[in-house]
Design goal:
Length: 390
Amino acid sequence: MAFEMLTTMRFWMSCTSCAMYALVTSSSQFGSSSRWFLKPSNHSHLWHSELKAMGAAMSDGCFAMFGPPDPRIRELQKCKEELKDFIQKRSCHPILLRLAWHDSGTYDQRLDNFPARGGATGSIRFDPEMNSAANAGMSKALDFLTKFAEKYPYVSWGDLIQLAAATAIECAGGPVIDMRYGRVAVGSEPEQEQCSAQSSFIFRAGADLPEAELEPAVGVEQQQQQQQQQQVGVEAAARQLRKIFSEKLGFTDQEIVALAGARTIGRAFKERGGSCSFGYGDQAASKYTKSSSKMWEDHSAGCGIAGGAAWTRNWLTFDNSYFTNHMDAMEDDDLLWFAMDAALQADAGFKPTFELYAKDQAVFFRDYANAHKKLSELGSKFEPAEGIKI
């Protein structure tokens, strides 16, 4: 028996063009073939309530309308907005980035099992990892994030640490990174010990790099000797960079240089390692890291805590000045330039990328975002396996 069927319409939103389409199924009688086609919707005013419901569902993830929304998505979104305000007020961009890097940096691609392989698991908040020499001063960053962890219990520590770092880059003027969340965090010290027993801390004090500075040379012969020492130091630094970032973490030469560009923000302190002669407070600060210094791109002041030394003058602005102004850093005693930095600029494998980023900030931003995303996912176990986006 033939009878008319009600036409069924479903609306879809395109995330790239924000265009609305209607997927229409139409059939005049049972037994006839159905026709499926896409066409622009010109009846959106009739479907306001349906679209509103779908929009809310999409904000919680695909197909959330067919089940309870994932509470992590809403909490991650809200947490990010609060982090933006907090980071800008406290000027804590660099230390939050450092915390995330050091949490990820325990990863060893030669190990398979979670959490023994290390990586972005939140394990840095436990001893002995937090109290390692390389993580000096990092407890402050954990203190910053603890209130967020308490307020947003559905956000794991693994996610929170990486969310804060990506948000800090964005707040400093850097690229928006296509982050993935849903990390399973190490939940106890015994789990952390299982991790640290097999994967070593790659960012230990000095990272086995050669000495950053040499005593001033006097006379032609001493100058020649110093130049030879510097060359040896650069070669050793390049080998060590590849040992850590290539053999252990799995990065290419290009990705290593991209990640190094994050030194455009941040400082080193005498109290956190022996490579820097500048310490805490205005009296021990370089001329670019005093409380009155103009370290933002717009030349405004406000550095959080005074002290230490930076690689760039505008060290709270994320740009490509680490590459463009490297000669300034090499010649200015109030700026940092270590053997590792010299290796990136001089080594045959690193140099072409270094020079490219000096010429093209857009390319640097693109490559940094990709390398940062990769670093943020090292060793992570995601639930669901594909992760979640916000």
